[in-house]
Recover the amino acids of this structure.
């Protein structure tokens, strides 16, 4: 089975073609502007490198964010267009959960993604079996420190290394900033393929604390 992976949730646009567990092609490009214009050129390059045409694709996987507002919408729109044109299944993948999948360890995972809005970050915690421990959050580094207080996490995501020196020493930090296409297809998709947008938390409410 041939799978197409589209990830436009960060400033790295990446497209991969995977057959079973083998990556046939993986094309990625850093894009600050013009994601929509560049995406289909990157797709065609990935198809050419894999030696296939679009009609050979059996399934599509696309990241839903959170991340770049415009990038996520462009990636999802492209994936839906390909799904309708080819008549094949489409799976939506939470970028937060995909990072937790990629960094699975004996510790719970704390995923931290760059929200590109001042000093806020997209954050979600997962148990080692990927059960969510919190809802997706949009919080400051000060609130992240409070979450980590006296706890040990495997910290991953594209902002993990950026915050490494400012967080607690009892955490283990992932060296991989960006998603592996195999991690995306192993994450388990959502039925609703729509951008994952996160509202800022209410002031004073610790949303990571279960009632």
């Amino acid at each position: 089975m041939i799978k197409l992976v589209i990830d436009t949730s960060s400033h790295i646009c990446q497209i991969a073609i995977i057959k079973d567990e083998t990556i046939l092609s993986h094309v990625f490009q850093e894009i600050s502007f013009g994601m929509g214009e560049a995406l289909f050129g990157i797709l065609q390059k990935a198809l050419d490198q894999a030696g296939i045409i679009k009609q050979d694709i059996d399934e599509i996987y696309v990241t839903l964010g959170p991340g770049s507002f415009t990038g996520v919408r462009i990636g999802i729109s492209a994936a839906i267009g390909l799904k309708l044109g080819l008549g094949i299944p489409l799976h939506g993948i939470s970028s937060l959960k995909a990072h937790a999948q990629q960094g699975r360890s004996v510790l719970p995972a704390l995923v931290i993604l760059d929200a590109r809005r001042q000093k806020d970050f997209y954050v979600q915690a997962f148990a080692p079996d990927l059960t969510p421990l919190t809802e997706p959050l949009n919080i400051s580094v000060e609130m992240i420190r409070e979450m980590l207080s006296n706890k040990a996490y495997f910290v991953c995501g594209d902002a993990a290394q950026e915050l490494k020196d400012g967080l607690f020493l009892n955490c283990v930090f992932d060296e991989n900033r960006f998603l592996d296409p195999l991690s995306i297809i192993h994450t388990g998709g959502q039925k609703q393929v729509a951008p994952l947008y996160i509202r800022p938390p209410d002031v004073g409410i610790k949303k990571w604390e279960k009632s």
